[in-house]
Amino acid sequence: MSDLPIKPLRIDAAANYIDAIYRLTEGRDEAATTNALAEELGITSAGVSIMIKRLAAQGLVDLTPYEGVKLTAEGLRRALRIIRRHRILEIFLVNILGFGWHETHPRARALERVIDDAFEDRMDEILGHPTRCPHGNPIPTRDGQLLPLTDVALTSVEPGTSGTISRVTTDDADELKYLSSLGLALDLPVRLVEIAPFDGPVAADLNGRTVHLGPRLADSIRINVHENARGAARREAAG
Amino acid sequence: MSDLPIKPLRIDAAANYIDAIYRLTEGRDEAATTNALAEELGITSAGVSIMIKRLAAQGLVDLTPYEGVKLTAEGLRRALRIIRRHRILEIFLVNILGFGWHETHPRARALERVIDDAFEDRMDEILGHPTRCPHGNPIPTRDGQLLPLTDVALTSVEPGTSGTISRVTTDDADELKYLSSLGLALDLPVRLVEIAPFDGPVAADLNGRTVHLGPRLADSIRINVHENARGAARREAAG
DNA sequence: CCGCTGATTTAAGTCAACTTAAAATTTCCT
DNA sequence: AGGAAATTTTAAGTTGACTTAAATCAGCGG
Question: Is B207 within 8 Å of B188 (Cβ atoms)?
């Protein structure tokens, strides 16, 4: 009649921070600032300040006071374990449970900190070892390897450039829902038509139909440029 | 980039208590004592004493000081919601994820307090609206109905009585593992051969083979007695 | 290079859910 | 019924993860 006491009733808060720091520093090489973390985690900067000191003491982050934090090798290892779990869960929620790609994020977030390795492995196997999440983000391997991304922002290429939708970088449910209502999905062919000036709308040819997106939303769309594309990417992929 | 803040970093402790109280009072009509709860939850009786007062203030339990607690109607409703979630999760873990029946309990326990109604409904649907968990316990309906059990303890029938294994009431992984290693599974035909005196071993014919079990373990096996059984049940089903 | 602004850190307090130790209550035994 | 033993409750302290308010620091504009 006895089970595991489920002793720690509080969820490992460190994982929350590690995870947030990873998201904030992903790609760009800068440190995550206290304020940015506070915003991301929805708590005050004072709280963050205290907590990151504890993380630093545990060797999970490198802390430069009044500067910000970066993950240490160990911190990064942990972050990638969580990211892997998160993304596999997202695929699981979509492929097995039948949720839409806009319904996965908070659920995966809640689940990722209670499942164990065996659970992760079963999902991975059932799903056929997926390599990316429903939004196109690559899934780190168990030992923390992450495929380098070759995609670029839709808004970073010359008008006329065509490619394939590789990734969507927003987590926002409403935005994702709207995008799929436009018929947008991974691996669809897309061609940038025009970017209106002064933060104007972005026109793109999506699988034959022309859609118009606000600049912020367009920015979250990543594409792999076709080999024979007419225009060239203006800059490298970001975040 | 923002998600739900996952604000309450602490898991709803009340659910833990409700759940434990249900398990302790299931079947028998007595109140759950402070000590029993403390044992079940792995905390001190002092802590339980404080907490159940809070639960009482919330109208979830009826508290008689120095006596114990019983669930109120509302408390029972909540307990049954958790139990339902738990048992559906167990089926899910076995049927979809491929875990053994001894590997489900702690995992379902961890998961049951982070999934939402939609998740529960998807599982229920995918599983074809199962009516019992892998250990044979009935699954409450969404509105808290629970099928009355008609099974009795294997150790409560006259030697010679035959029936079908309906349920196993232990949660212990090792015990469950051992039972399945003996070839025991739900719905198998079984016949009580003999109960040795002085808390002696219990001999049973299990699907043709005779197995010998310690009295405690045998006690956790429930059977539905065959209509044409030679012996009659000695007492009603318990716990 | 002085001072102001905004970001960051420290200090001190809160809250839930515990803990240990002591006090109160019930139960059991003769 | 009387008193020891067991159980339960109260009191007071601890812990983790916050909070608000005050103090400190970086960085730049003039």
Answer: yes
Q: Which CATH number applies to A13-74?
A: 1.10.10.10
CATH number for B152-238 (one of 2.30.30.90, 3.10.20.310, 3.40.50.720, 3.30.43.10): it is 2.30.30.90
Would you call B116 and A109 a contact, using CB atoms and an 8 Å cutoff? no
Q: Are A55 and A61 in contact (CB under 8 A)?
A: yes
Cβ distance A2 to B107 less than 8 Å, yes or no, reads: no
Asked if the Cβ of residue B66 lies within 7 A of any atom of strand D, the reply is: yes
Gap from A65 CA to D14 C1', Å: 29
Distance separating alpha carbons of residues B77 and B31, to the nearest angstrom: 17
Per CB-CB distance under 8 Å, the chain B contacts of A123 are 97
* pTM (two decimals): 0.89
Q: Give A182→chain B minimum CA distance, Å.
A: 21
The ranges assigned to domains in chain A are 13-74, 152-238
pLDDT along chain B (239 residues), means of 10: 40 91 88 96 96 95 94 96 97 98 95 95 98 97 93 95 96 96 96 91 94 94 80 43
Q: Do B42 and A118 touch (CB under 8 A)?
A: no
Mean pLDDT of all residues in chain A? Answer: 90
Q: Quickly give A70 CA vs D23 C1' distance in Å.
A: 26
Ranges of beta strands (E only) in chain A are 61-64, 68-71, 152-153, 162-168, 189-195, 202-206, 209-213, 221-225
Cα separations in angstroms, B176 against B14, B205, B214: 29, 18, 13
Within an 8 Å CB–CB cutoff, is residue B1 touching chain A? Answer: yes
**CA gap B60, B68 in Å, rounded:** 13
Residues of A in contact with B39 (CB under 8 A): 2
The first and second tokens of residue A56, run together, are 């630093």
Nucleotide nearest to A45 (CA to C1'): C8
Length of chain B: 239
Q: What is the pLDDT of residues A27-81, one digit of tens each?
A: 778 899 999 999 999 999 999 999 999 999 999 999 999 999 999 999 999 999 9
Of A117, A18, A31, nearest to A74 (Cα)?
A: A18
